[in-house]
Design a protein that fits this description.
942 residues, Cytochrome Bc1 Complex, Chain A, domain 1, 4 domains, six-stranded mixed beta sheet, 23 strands
């Protein structure tokens, strides 16, 4: 995981910048002042406090300045493996207890490792703060004392499954394994992947881990940020109490680039490999400046101008004009020792690789020769302005950003200076940096091609990162082996008073034409989200035209009113806004996020998109082709194939059994007239609801909505939605459960999906079902995750949950396991389901699940998106504004007896469908012998 820097985040959040249309440079958004207090303990630990009286949570963020760049030769992946072991417990907090303590109070924790640092973060109610500090201090001081070969063996299995899941089996995952060695020369600290090579990981021994801890995990090599709702004076005392006694070991020397090491030779910077994908992908990289150094901001702005959004240069050339690509993106990956400017292009089926490379070369040459226009620069700056506000919504993200600023710049208050780097940029500066960075002779090129296609390129085996064979590093004398730990650490702090989180107030109104309006206000940041939701989902597809609803929604942002595709993108870019369209089984929706000062213009644009889409024939053809390309690619992904097969098997003959993304065959016959007909029939005022969250009051909002939507009147006869009857559990009629096998060539893991029908969202059993899901697989300490990951090491993670829709739902258990452990994993899943039926949930499990659910509901109020999910549920399921509060009341009243009765009613191993996606030829006999005859599914679950 990379440091979450502002513009890097913006790349995935906002729409694109046009090349030539006029745009206004940002005048400077009014960001809230971050109250920061910085101090240093005598042992060298840097501490920053960021109190926020409005926050209902507190975050403890500990950054250690050690990442994969600090790994010795022959031990790639060591830093990330050690991150896993930090959660395996100490003598005071044994294995699993860290997570148990956190979750029982409604908190949670996690960590990430990148090239330069490893970051651990704890999130929870303010009452948990002292406990968080005690846990982090305990493992900073004493972790090696509890380190064992057994713990190492277990987490090694987990990390190897993570590697298989995210790199080996994931479509295009091979890019993450190969790109470092293509971009950085041998010997450079960034020339191997953070996840490491399997052989290196298997070679690690406990003494090395202890030495690694002593070298890197000390107060002088760490920084601590505490953010959220807490008392600063008391927290200062707690920090000194729990961290002040830890000895000040010397900080290790920072990694550096060896003299003469730069980029690999030209012959080593181009590679073509094959993978289990349907669409070819090209990845290009160029050496670029280090994070926050001179030229870093210019590289980020160039990435936006090049390949972010419809009006970006590469998107226009490759996706819109020549239609050679399904998608294009770019980003600046700045790190401590240098960076890389990255461009990724996913080709359309049949597109010429040579044409793609030539087109990119022409676009880059033009940018280098002429530089970007003032309009392009202004729109990129607008993008950053909105992204800076979006980034500050979650207190967890704020804490992480503050610690990154401290680690990279030495200034936790760097936010305004960070933004100023982009505001001060000029087109002339970007032209100079484009010429300096985009040098063809420094470029690395990686092609990932589909397997089995006609090509002279040989099938390439999965890469193993080359690392020199070296003896096991010698273990230095530890400085904390005989450390005397003060008695204060022997007692876990008492938990403070847990409070029920404050839920947002729901305001309602109705436009003169009958459209309902929901408003959930949040005024701490100048940010808004607006959504028009329509009862026009997949259930309304014409019987002979499946895919119509989805394609209609996909075309809404391709031109509306008087604006074509690029003109609409330009209007949105000028506001720094993000427009999204989507289609589910019951609804279509259009969502707009923007700064609150742009509300009037935003509402006008939203009305155009919803009411007056253009459906230009050329856009219909282009978007239809893009969706067909992604549909093909999705059917090469084992995760997607397993989900499709489960839904198709459980929801046989029902709309929920169809994949939401239409197949190429479904898309092929759809024409402009089909979309226009569907839009006239279902995009109507009486089928619409308007949802608004964020920084606005109803008295300002309603007149703008009336002007834009109030004259939207029905035309033609009213159309009633087709809705099935409410589902009731069917009696078990068979002794054999369904077993569905999905072939995924070359897979090293089995993707497992297990599920059965569940009731709809308005069922009175929903509170109990939510708690059952949390106990079974809804948190890290849930039964499935503890069994499959923490006990057996079969998987990187296992989850369970109920997908609750209007009339019927789905219990879905999901995990990816080592292929050799497929049968045993399914047996363990079935055993856990049966245990939930057979044994009452313990009082501790019940209380933990209740607290987690209560805290999760409260945490959604941190963002406009979280508030939108609340509003969306209220509107979609016709729920009372008080439903959130009633859900919490109902959850807190539940007892173990009621949960067991609910489990007996809805969970039955003989009703469960078992789906296995992977190398089924090797597994079929074993699985059929244990679970009965299997059905082999196609890519559409049929």
């Amino acid at each position: 995981m990379r440091p979450a820097r502002l513009l890097a985040l913006a790349l995935g959040l906002l729409v694109a910048a046009p090349n030539d249309a006029p745009a206004k440079a940002p005048s400077g958004v009014s960001l809230p002042r971050l109250v920061l207090e910085r101090f240093r303990l005598t042992n060298g630990l840097e501490v920053v406090l960021h109190p926020d009286p409005q926050a209902t949570q507190v975050v403890v963020n500990v950054l250690y300045r050690v990442g994969s760049a600090s790994e010795p030769p022959g031990r790639s992946g060591l830093a990330h493996l050690f991150e896993h072991l930090m959660f395996m417990g100490t003598q005071r907090v044994p294995h699993k207890q860290i997570d148990v303590i956190m979750e029982r109070a409604g908190g949670w924790n996690n960590a990430y490792t990148n090239e330069d640092s490893t970051v651990y973060y704890d999130v929870g109610p303010t009452a948990l703060l002292e406990t968080m500090l005690w846990i982090e201090a305990d493992r900073m001081a004493t972790l090696p004392r509890a380190m064992t070969a057994r713990k190492l063996a277990l987490q090694l299995k987990v990390v190897l499954e993570e590697r298989r899941q995210n790199y080996v089996d994931a479509p295009y995952g091979v890019v993450g394994l190969l790109l470092p060695a293509l971009s950085f020369a041998k010997g450079h600290p960034y020339s191997w992947p953070v996840i490491g090579a399997e052989a290196d990981l298997r070679a690690v021994r406990v003494p090395e881990l202890r030495a690694f801890f002593e070298r890197h995990y000390s107060p002088k090599n760490a920084s601590l940020v505490i953010a959220g709702g807490f008392d600063p004076a008391r927290t200062r005392k707690l920090v000194r109490r729990y961290f002040g006694w830890i000895p000040a070991a010397a900080a290790p020397a920072a990694p550096r680039v060896p003299s003469g090491v730069g980029i690999p030779p030209a012959s080593a910077r181009r590679r073509v490999v094959r993978d289990s994908v349907h669409l070819a992908r090209l990845t290009l990289t160029w050496p670029s400046p280090a994070a926050y150094q001179r030229g870093d901001a210019a590289a980020e702005l160039l990435a936006v101008i090049l390949a972010t959004g419809k009006r970006s240069r590469l998107h226009q050339a490759l996706v819109i004009d020549r239609q050679l690509a399904a998608d294009v993106s770019a980003y600046q990956d700045g790190r401590r020792l240098g960076g890389q400017l990255v461009v990724e292009v996913t080709l359309r089926a049949g597109a010429s690789r040579k044409q793609v490379e030539r087109t990119i070369a022409r676009v880059l040459a033009k940018l280098v020769a002429r530089g970007p226009s003032e309009a392009e620069l202004a729109r990129a700056q607008n993008r950053l302005e909105t992204a800076s506000v979006v980034r500050l919504q979650r207190i967890r993200h704020r804490a992480d950003l503050i610690n990154q600023y401290l680690a990279f710049t030495g200034r936790p208050d760097y936010l305004e200076r960070d933004l100023a780097r982009y505001r001060r940029a000029t087109s002339a500066q970007l032209k100079r940096w484009a010429a300096k960075l985009l040098v063809p002779g420094k470029r690395a090129t990686l092609w990932v091609l589909p397997r089995g296609k006609a090509s002279k390129t040989p099938k390439t085996p999965r890469p193993k990162t080359p690392t020199p064979k070296t003896p096991t590093p010698k273990t230095p004398k530890t400085t904390r082996a005989g450390l005397r730990v003060p008695k204060l650490m022997d007692t876990r702090p008492a938990l403070g008073k847990l409070r029920r989180p404050k839920l947002p107030r729901v305001e309602q109104a109705t436009l003169k034409n009958g459209i309902p309006v929901y408003l959930l206000r949040k005024h701490d940041l100048p940010l808004l989200q607006l959504r028009v939701q329509l009862r026009a989902g997949l259930a309304e597809d014409p019987p002979r035209r499946p895919g119509t609803a989805y394609l209609t929604a996909a075309l809404l942002d391709e031109g509306a009113g008087r604006r074509g595709t690029l003109a609409l993108a330009a209007a949105l870019d000028e506001l720094g806004a993000r427009l999204q369209t989507g289609c589910s089984y019951g609804n279509s929706r259009v969502t707009l996020r923007l700064l609150s000062r742009h509300l009037r213009r935003g509402v006008s644009l939203l009305a155009d998109v919803v009411r007056r889409p253009r459906f230009a024939p050329k856009d219909v053809r282009r978007v239809r082709g893009q969706l067909a390309a992604w549909s093909r690619q999705r059917r090469a992904d084992g995760l997607a194939l397993a989900d499709i097969a489960l839904s198709a098997s459980v929801h046989q003959g029902y709309v929920y059994g169809r994949p939401r993304l239409p197949t190429p065959a479904e898309l092929r016959p759809l024409r402009r007239a089909d979309l226009q007909r569907f839009h006239r029939r279902y995009y109507r005022a009486e089928r619409a609801t308007i949802l608004v969250t964020g920084d606005v009051r109803m008295r300002r909002l309603l007149p703008l909505l009336e002007r834009a939507f109030g004259r939207w009147t029905p035309r033609g006869p009213r159309v009633e939605a087709r809705r099935p009857a409410v589902l009731r559990p069917a009696p078990v009629k068979t002794k054999r459960r369904p077993l569905v096998l999905v072939p995924v060539p070359g897979a090293t893991q089995s993707v497992l999906r297990v599920g059965e029908l569940a009731p709809g969202r308005r069922s009175s059993d929903v509170p109990a079902l939510r708690l059952l899901a949390l106990v079974l697989g809804g948190s890290f300490t849930s039964r499935l995750n503890q069994n499959l990951r923490e006990k057996h090491g079969f998987t990187y993670g296992a989850r369970a949950g109920f997908v609750l829709r209007q009339r019927r739902g789905l219990l879905r258990i999901s995990t990816s396991v080592a292929a050799t452990q497929t049968r045993r994993s399914l047996e363990q899943i079935l055993a856990e389901v049966e245990r939930l039926r057979r044994e009452p949930v313990s009082a501790a499990e019940l209380a933990k699940a209740q607290r987690l659910l209560v805290e999760e509901r409260g945490a959604r109020s941190q963002t406009v998106g979280g508030l939108m999910s609340i509003a969306d549920n209220l509107a979609r399921f016709s729920l009372s504004p008080a439903s959130e509060s009633r859900l919490i009341d109902a959850v807190l009243r539940l007892d173990a007896k009621t949960l067991r009765a609910t489990a007996l009613r809805y969970l039955h191993p003989k009703r469960l469908t078992l789906v296995v996606a992977g190398a089924i030829k090797r597994l079929r006999k074993e699985l059929e012998r244990r679970f009965g005859p299997a059905y082999v599914s196609g890519p559409d679950g049929l």
